[in-house]
Amino acid sequence: MASETRRHHHNLVPLAALISREVRSEKMEKPNVKYGYAAQSRKGEDYYLVKTDCQRVPGNCLSTFSVFAIFDGHNGNAAAIFTKENLLNHVMGAIPRGLGRGEWLQALPRALVSGFVKTDKEFQSRGETSGTTVTFVIIDGWTVTVASVGDSRCVLDAQGGGVSDLTVDHRLEDNVEERERVTASGGEVGRLSIVGGVEVGPLRCWPGGLCLSRSIGDMDVGEFIVPIPYVKQVKLSSAGGRLIIASDGIWDALSSEMAAKSCRGLPAELASRQVVKEALKTRGLKDDTTCIVVDIIPPDNSLPPPPPPKKQSKLRSLIFRKWSHDSSKKLAKKLSAVDIVEELFEEGSAMLAERLGSDTSAGQSTSSLFTCAVCQVDLAPSEGISVHAGSIFSTSTKPWQGPFLCMDCRNKKDAMEGKRPSGVKVV
What we know:
Blueprint: H1 2-7, H2 15-29, E1 32-40, E2 46-55, E3 64-74, H3 78-93, H4 101-124, E4 131-140, E5 143-149, E6 153-158, E7 163-165, H5 176-184, E8 188-193, E9 199-206, E10 216-217, E11 230-235, E12 241-246, H6 248-251, H7 256-262, H8 268-283, E13 289-297, E14 319-322, H9 329-336, E15 340-347, H10 352-357, H11 362-366, E16 385-386, E17 404-405, H12 407-416
Parallel strand pairs: 14-15
Antiparallel strand pairs: 1-13, 2-3, 3-4, 4-5, 4-10, 5-11, 6-7, 6-12, 8-9, 11-15, 12-13, 16-17
Helix pairs in contact: 3-4
């Protein structure tokens, strides 16, 4: 702005014109977001959320972001419906007000953890026993933030042909770390035993027999099945990319690469139908099968990514690169031209102290000191219990420091870590 002013010191540009110019450039830099949805229902327990008109700053159209989510319910649809209706509000409520865009994006991972735990806590208090997986995607400009529990998945097909998962499956069968965590927290992991002691089917958590180690709801299974999400935040290059968000009805039939390859070159709406069609062709309709395809497209290009050439150099393949704060802009520009996707954040720990207490971004310092970090209720100075207090997993040497939890959320934290029996009894 200063250089702009110096350049026109003889012919001053009105402030309104400068602001208008900034508005135009910001609009130009933002990608277009196109999406398509397709589903085939068998049990009626899959739900989805599409909201493309969310605003960081109410009333400011330049602060728009989009939300796409899939909720795959089990043991009924109550948890999926409740989560669809409440999770977004709980996540947004955990972000301090008055943050700029950069600080807001930094605060998102922690807010997602708070929002997931609060939603789970509220749903369990209703006494209903269903549960749901959640894959929750927030797109703000070129930055994509994904939070997930369960085995619905979000796959990134970057422009240039690289395919990578932005989620981790929380299936006991496949995830050794989660099996160890569940048993350490008081659950048992094993297969279903039938007559004669023969064990069949996938690994399950007992009591309850759930195949997943993380979900929202499932109060009858035990609170070591946690709602704390794996979170990944990436920034796409200016070439854009495609997201495929789908329930396990897709992923039980197709690999991430197969799903991406099956719909390349098609616009998002046709692409989502094609992915569902491929899954049904491979496996038949054995489960609810839901898919959202989202294209993040450069503003000067309204077409979906073309099919990649058959042979690609290693330079063109997708590379995740963690960035230091002093990375030069020149290097960033050079790398974005070869489709390098910048990894901004990744964390999958199931320990609330690690997920709420390790954030040193501006968002933390501006949040209210005596507010519960999960449910956002105001606390009297004597009421708040540090998230670090008494935690053997905490790296903090000052357990009297925040963030703080109310007594109810502290009990929830202890139950999830196996420090006390789940307070919920189903009769």
